[in-house]
Design goal:
Layout: H1 9-22, H2 28-49, H3 54-61, H4 69-76, E1 78-82, E2 95-102, E3 105-112, H5 118-123, H6 131-146, E4 151-157, H7 164-168, H8 171-182, E5 189-198, H9 199-203, E6 210-214, E7 218-220, H10 224-231, H11 238-245, H12 249-254, E8 260-262, H13 273-293, H14 296-308
Length: 317
């Protein structure tokens, strides 16, 4: 475990101790000890995650075991069929897009996908999409509109890939077109920031009727490290940047960007992906039922007004 995540070390140590004891004989004494340590673990998780700083929440949002889009698809979507390619250049594995059944409702699902092991991380470019990823996403979302399928998007990316070839193929234009066209799609759109919501790379999938953010997810225009490098030229100031930028779920809700904060399981989503999926499912299903029953023109007007109201400023004149 990195030094930056030392706040979670007592939890990890206790988990390992419980795992070791569980592998021993199933004696009554051993069972009672496991139960005692499990209660202690639950309490330790609650206490630890109740007082995280913005920087620590950033580390949780980036946790390598945190559920990604495909995890939520496997846990909540039936008969999912993934579609590939933007019909212009190539397929981008950093974006997953396709159709499936959600509570017997045909839906479109689009989201960022990071990798687990080194090979998959490289193949999926660490969850940083290139232009063809966003163009694929929009192609599939336009299909969803044509066939009247609600859209669920999952945001979890450090940001759009800033490489020279991505810029040559129109990275900024691809993001801008997605934002523009998502604003006018006539089907319900529910956006969930499930991990990192990084810059334009997140916004390209982030226009919707309902915006959710998980309790320990973040949403920001730049990473804390990038902000610290620009303002102070010192990466050690990243915790200061995370605090000043107001990137946590509570900040995003207070600023009116997110509609709901989805509570996470004790110990955060990475400690129990299945439990996290159940919590998220209850919110998504309720929101989807509300949006489906709303007249299309009324829903589009609310979406428009929602984004027109974003932002706060003060007149100092």
């Amino acid at each position: 475990m990195s030094d930056e995540a030392q706040f979670e070390k007592p939890i990890v140590d206790l988990e390992r101790k419980i795992e070791e004891l569980s592998g021993f004989s199933a004696s009554e004494e051993n069972r009672r000890e496991v139960e005692r340590l499990t209660r202690k673990l639950d309490q330790l998780r609650k206490e630890t995650f109740a007082k995280l700083t913005p920087w620590q929440k950033t580390l949780v949002a980036r946790h390598p075991r945190r559920p990604y889009t495909l995890d939520y698809i496997n846990l909540m979507i039936e008969d999912f069929t993934e579609l590939h390619g933007d019909r212009k250049f190539a397929d981008d594995p950093a974006v997953v897009a396709g159709f499936g059944l959600y509570h017997d409702i045909p839906v479109c699902v689009v989201g960022h996908q990071k990798g687990r092991d080194t090979r998959e991380k490289i193949r999926r470019n660490f969850g940083m999409p290139r232009p063809e990823g966003y163009r694929k996403a929009l192609r599939v979302m336009r299909l969803a509109e044509r066939f009247e399928r609600p859209i669920l998007t999952f945001i979890d990316t450090p940001g759009a890939y800033p490489g020279i070839h991505a810029e040559e193929r129109g990275q900024a234009e691809a993001i801008a077109v997605n934002i523009r066209d998502m604003a006018s799609l006539r089907v319900p759109i529910i956006v969930t920031v499930s991990g990192e919501g990084g810059s334009g790379g997140a916004l390209a999938l982030g226009v919707g009727d309902r915006i959710n953010i998980l309790e320990f997810a973040i949403y920001s225009v730049i990473s804390p490290e990038g902000c610290a490098a620009i303002l102070w030229r010192d990466p050690r100031r990243s915790p200061d940047a995370a605090r000043a930028m107001r990137i946590t779920a509570s900040d995003i809700k207070e600023l009116g960007i997110a509609d709901e904060i989805i509570p996470e399981v004790p110990g955060a989503a990475h400690s129990d992906p299945e439990g996290m999926a159940k919590i998220l499912d209850s919110h998504l299903h309720r929101q989807l039922q509300e949006l489906i029953q709303m007249p299309v023109d009324e829903r589009l007007e609310q979406r428009y007004e929602k984004y027109r109201k974003l932002g706060q400023f003060e007149d100092l004149s």
